[in-house]
UniProtKB/TrEMBL annotation:
<keyword id="KW-0812">Transmembrane</keyword>
<feature type="transmembrane region" description="Helical">
    <location>
        <begin position="102"/>
        <end position="124"/>
    </location>
</feature>
<feature type="transmembrane region" description="Helical">
    <location>
        <begin position="51"/>
        <end position="69"/>
    </location>
</feature>
<dbReference type="GO" id="GO:0034220">
    <property type="term" value="P:monoatomic ion transmembrane transport"/>
</dbReference>
<feature type="transmembrane region" description="Helical">
    <location>
        <begin position="213"/>
        <end position="230"/>
    </location>
</feature>
<feature type="transmembrane region" description="Helical">
    <location>
        <begin position="27"/>
        <end position="44"/>
    </location>
</feature>
<keyword id="KW-0472">Membrane</keyword>
<keyword id="KW-1133">Transmembrane helix</keyword>
<dbReference type="Pfam" id="PF07885">
    <property type="entry name" value="Ion_trans_2"/>
</dbReference>
<keyword id="KW-0813">Transport</keyword>
<feature type="transmembrane region" description="Helical">
    <location>
        <begin position="75"/>
        <end position="95"/>
    </location>
</feature>
<keyword id="KW-0406">Ion transport</keyword>
<dbReference type="InterPro" id="IPR013099">
    <property type="entry name" value="K_chnl_dom"/>
</dbReference>
<protein>
    <submittedName>
        <fullName>Two pore domain potassium channel family protein</fullName>
    </submittedName>
</protein>
<feature type="domain" description="Potassium channel">
    <location>
        <begin position="144"/>
        <end position="227"/>
    </location>
</feature>
<feature type="transmembrane region" description="Helical">
    <location>
        <begin position="136"/>
        <end position="155"/>
    </location>
</feature>
<keyword id="KW-0407">Ion channel</keyword>
Amino acid sequence: MPEVWYAPKKPLSGRDYWVAVLRKQPSAILLAIQLLAILLLPWLEAQLWGRLVFVVISFFAVTIAAFVTRSTPSLTWLALLIGFPCVALEAWSVLSPDNVLVGAVGHFGLAAFYLYVAYGLVSYVFSDSWVTSDELFAVGAAFTVLLFAFAYLYLGVQFIWPDSFTGHVPGPRRSFLELLFFSAANLTSVGLSDVGAIRPHARAVTIIEQLTGVMYVAMVISRLVALTVAKARR
């Protein structure tokens, strides 16, 4: 049985209030951090310090994500074991952008971490026979986590195979924001992007993301329909 959060009998304030909010709706916090990171990225990406700040935001996302997946059969220690070293490698790659090994390992590691967190969130949503408000936030959080996961996969691909993606600005590598935009276009099946995959490995990962986006929507809709039918039969 999932842990049920009960409202306290007396109002909380300060630190206790935010701890209670985090316990009640950790998925909402994770979703908010992801959306905030997307909005801040245009300003942060242009500067070295800004990219390091983005890494710090990712650090907090790692912490919140580990807290969220603790409510599922997923292992929290495994999430931390994958996440924290990869965040450190990501910071290293910001300071040493020409180090291909560090960059590739960091990007692929973060992609694996975000995919693991997405699995934990989906398991959380499918863990019981009713839908809570936090599980609804988890649906959105899982989608944004997948968005970041494939963006990091694309970063890793272009570190190993330069010129894997084309864009309006010539160059062997696309920025993280460009690849995040490309990831969003594929995952949502919108397809509106000035970035394109032109090498075989990049195209293969793109196909996987497009299929993932379609299957994710199908899974969520089928889950909600099944719960609605089950509730009507009671």
